Amino acid sequence: MEKEYSVLKHELVPKHTILNDEEKKKLLERFNIKPNHLPRILTTDPVVKELGAKEGNVLKIDRKSPVSGTITYYRIVSRRKK
Predict the structure, then answer these.
(1) Which residue segment(s) compose the domain that 22 sits in?
(2) Comparing C-alpha atoms, which of 42, 55, 50, 57 is closest to residue 13?
(3) What is the pTM of this model?
(4) Cα distances (Å, whole numbers) of residue 55 to 5, 32, 65, 79
(5) CB hemisphere CA count around 39 (13 angstroms)
(6) Could you identify which of 38, 48, 53, 54 might form a hypothetical disulfide with 76, taking C-beta atoms 3.0 to 4.6 angstroms apart as the criterion?
(7) At CA 53, angle to CA 47 and CA 55, rounded to 5?
(8) Sheet harboring 58-65: ordered strands across?
(9) Residue 72 belongs to some domain of the structure
């Protein structure tokens, strides 16, 4: 059965991108943080499932704001809530 709907195409869902290992390393170095310092997004989140993201992946989320343009957030994929 083919999937009929993509949550990623919904107008209210911001753009999500999985960072590669090099991008993840640069992000952590830039902010001088460890992965566990990032906010979490659960493996059960519909966007995480659709992207095929795995635990430990870091997602870059670009949200459009009418006031400040595009805002970038980062989340680490986790199986559990903290």
Answers:
(1) 7-78
(2) 50
(3) 0.86
(4) 24, 21, 28, 7
(5) 8
(6) 38
(7) 115
(8) 15-18, 58-65, 69-78, 40-42
(9) yes
